[in-house]
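Two proteins, back to back. First:
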Amino acid sequence: MINVNLKNHDYEYDVTQLLLVFFNEIKFSLEKIDCEFYLENSIKIVGDDFIVENKLYQNDVLIDELIEKRENKSDIDLFIRNYHKRIIKYSMYKLLLKYKKANGKWGILTGMRPVKVVHKYIDNGYLKEEILEILKSEYLMSEDKANLIINIAYRERRFIYPIDNKRISIYLSIPFCITRCTYCSFPSNIYKKKKHLMEDYIKSLKYEINSVIDRVNEKGFVIDSIYFGGGTPSTLTVSEMNEIFLLLTKKIDMSTVLEFTFEAGRPDTITEEKLEIMKKFNVTRICLNPQTMDNGILKKVNRNHTREDILEKYEMIKKFNFNSLNMDLILGLPNQTMETYKKTLKIIKDLKPDNITIHSLSIKKGSNLKNTGYKFEDANLTGKLMEYSKEYLKDLYNPYYLYRQKNIIGNLENVGFALEGKESLYNIKIIEERHTILAFGAGAVSKIAYENSDRFDRVANLKGVEEYILRIDEMINRKLDAIENIIR
């Protein structure tokens, strides 16, 4: 535990995220006792200089201090506050690293989207070698993590640039599942319990799509990717899928849609009839997400299927010849070992899906794992599993997008791997936040990008299905207002 006293600034959130790299518990207090360390941090601006002072105490005794002095300007950071936060985190990290081992290799990069940092430097004319040195010296990252995000950034840029604010994506939320996985914190509803709401939910979803897409078309926007997520969208019946697909084809010029993703996710929701309707309406990318191929672990995390079910449905999907098939795996699940994971990854690689997404488990508020106090027995193992994944897949797959989450085991990352030419456009756009994504349905969050700016606004729909249905006009009006800000 560490107690912290911040002086002359209010960057408590950013400091907390940095200190979690070293400590499980952080308290902001003036007390120097009853804690492992006490850190006093202050800033001041003197002339053209920005000065950060850190004093580290143990048992009320000063044991070390560090003063970081920098010129008070940045050619990179959009706002001077961002620069100040970065130098504060840098100075704290350097001091604490002398006394505590850091959890992970990400240095002071604590945000969800570290690849965005690389894009920022590329946009400002920095060369690859210069960015590598900056990430190592100024962000205190390991060389392997720095190279990983640099390579991903260059791979992404052919999909992101040139930035065209007239090109947008849409996301549709189907927040229903057959069972709730123990690690899940997404807004999802057990289908058997909430089935009676489905008819009204679809009516509200269609109403929202109708109202908003009309404005999108009026303003001349082009929709280039569509993503059905959840929940588990394949809990929809064939009739319900057909109903929504028909509306989309009436409202959207489908000739501009480069990628149309449908998260089938759970094999126990997939039928040939559903795959036929997806194919009929030109779904191009489908997700079948085993998470693990170990039957014992699947049962432990409340997945209502087996490894054999996954293999059966994989072969069924392959017959329909979708352009891309994605499979997700999770590191850090209960009872997972290096042996069980190696077996899982070999099975998946031998199937040769077009995308493989490796998630490091994030124990989130609202999940059963969080509520029961779950801790992975060996947090270091998740790091080994991730490194093994990268090495084992590298002869066929390239990392093409990456993001991180709060409370992620081992302070790791989630990485999407793809066969050459099979990268997911939507995944890149949702993570790098350079384009507008309009999101429909309960729990869906729109991201409104601003022209010639890194700025974006979040416009969230209500999470509860009942609330969403009752207040649908409010959700629509929020989105219509936001659309006016995409291009002025």
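And the second protein:
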Amino acid sequence: MMVRTGSLSLFSFIMTRSLKKGPYVDEKLLKKIAGKRPIETGVIKTWARRSQISPEMVGFAFGVHNGKQHLEVLVTEEMVGHRLGEFSHTKKFFRHGGKMQKELELKKKEAEITAAKSAKAETPAKK
């Protein structure tokens, strides 16, 4: 996806670290997993949300701090290259909408109730 602003074109993603520097992986995390097997270790607590996930971390469970608590993140192969903080959300999503959304939810709930009642009425008639 490309966004155009005047004569400049910016991509929707921005590289925060130059390629010549390489990925940032917190040294403390690497020390905690060095020489250990994922099955033997429990949840490894960390506050290093900015640390990128390296291939050595696959299989380990990290407790990533979200500002209030540590959320458990089990690292898989698809997560390599992403940051730990991406999998530990800091804000709780409630829902979109207001009055209109409540009306839609109420209609949906009523439809489910009527469907359940009709299914219940049909069951004894078949026996």
